[in-house]
Design a protein that fits this description.
This protein is of the alpha+beta class. The protein contains 7 helices and 17 strands. Helix 1 runs antiparallel to helix 2. This is Nicotinic acid mononucleotide adenyltransferase.
């Protein structure tokens, strides 16, 4: 391209020279400098055009490490399902029931009951299915709920998210080892489920201390869910009855509250239909024994659970029992029982 421009310039100067031949001798130094400047400018313009170079700057590629799902799931022995952190409008049934899940070998274990947690299956709970981590996903073949494919995300060193894309629901699981898992925390954070895991609670002792009151005659309690209501039944039948023979004399709604500045104390209020209510301090002795302290009379009642309901092992109950988001209200009361 430069050569073409050069030929063009020479032709222009040639014709200009022929037309002005008679005057060429009179061209002074000023005219020669003007011609030289014109030629130099045209040359630089051609060079600037001909020397164009395309420069491509590529974005820097960062090779992020691939999450090892299999190793992540096995990094903790127990994964506690924080049901209150769940997001989404639907559910993954076996996660909705479980307090903890574990991944041992190729087997999925779950603690679906508060009763026996820490003891059943050496702390892992019941065998509920099988899993694999092909293609970086958690794929579970559950004994009751069938096949599920879940995405796994690491939230932090002790927390993972299990996401079901079909229901657009996320579950958040907190990792523990069996020797550092806070079983007391699980009991008190889920105490309402403990009350519901027995068909009946039978009164076994009444303290000698305390004033006479109507609750002295009530020997059986039953706790259950009806819709979104927490319900109870009460009976004055004598102790020692067969569970199927117990007749319920009273019923109503019950509520459980936490206590301000006292994480280990819960309160229980029985709101009887047409009969007012009874207020108790609720103490968990073990996973089959509770004590109710009747603060207005100063009487302590001990109840033992009868007819344990093992979820996943007892027919229709395995489908009925689901955990729900629960935020216990807090009462600003002072512990009245002297221990």
């Amino acid at each position: 391209m430069f050569f073409v421009y050069k030929i063009l310039i020479i032709n222009i100067l040639y014709y200009w020279h022929n037309d002005c031949f008679t005057c060429i001798g009179n061209i002074n130094l000023y005219h020669m400098r003007t011609i030289k400047l014109l030629f130099t400018t045209l040359t630089l313009a051609v060079l600037a055009t001909a020397c164009y170079t395309e420069v491509i700057i590529e974005d820097e590629y960062i090779d992020e490490p691939v999450l090892n799902v299999h190793a992540l799931l096995k990094s903790h022995e127990l994964w506690y399902v924080d049901i209150n952190a769940t997001s989404g409008n639907r559910e993954v049934p076996f996660l909705q029931r479980a307090f903890t899940v574990s991944f041992v070998g190729e087997t999925v274990f779950a603690n679906n009951n508060i009763v026996g947690i820490g003891k059943t299956g050496n702390g892992f709970g019941l065998d509920v299915g099988y899993f694999n981590t092909a293609n970086g996903r958690l794929q579970i073949n559950h004994d009751v709920d069938g096949y599920w494919s879940l995405e796994v995300f690491m939230v932090d060193n002790n927390t993972i998210e299990l996401y079901d894309s079909n229901s657009r629901t996320s579950y958040y699981l907190e990792g523990y080892q069996r020797n550092n898992f806070d079983y007391d925390m699980v009991f008190y954070d889920n105490i309402e489920y403990l009350l519901q895991e027995y068909d009946v609670w039978e009164k076994v002792t009444t303290s000698k201390e305390g004033l006479l009151n109507d609750f002295d005659s009530e020997n059986y309690l039953q706790f259950y869910i009806e819709g979104n209501r927490s319900m109870f039944n009460s009976s004055v039948d004598p102790s020692g009855m067969h569970l199927d023979d117990v007749l319920w004399d009273y019923s109503g709604e019950y509520s459980v509250f936490g206590v301000y500045n006292d994480e280990t104390l819960k309160t229980l209020t029985l709101d009887y239909d047409f009969m007012g209510n009874d207020y108790f301090e609720l103490y968990v002795i073990n996973d089959s024994t509770i004590e109710l302290y009747h603060s207005s009379s100063g009487t302590v009642y001990k109840f033992k659970g009868k007819g344990f309901i093992s979820y996943l092992k007892s027919g229709i109950s395995q489908l009925d029992k689901k955990r729900t988001k629960t935020e216990y209200g807090t009462m600003k009361v002072v512990r009245k029982r002297k221990i």
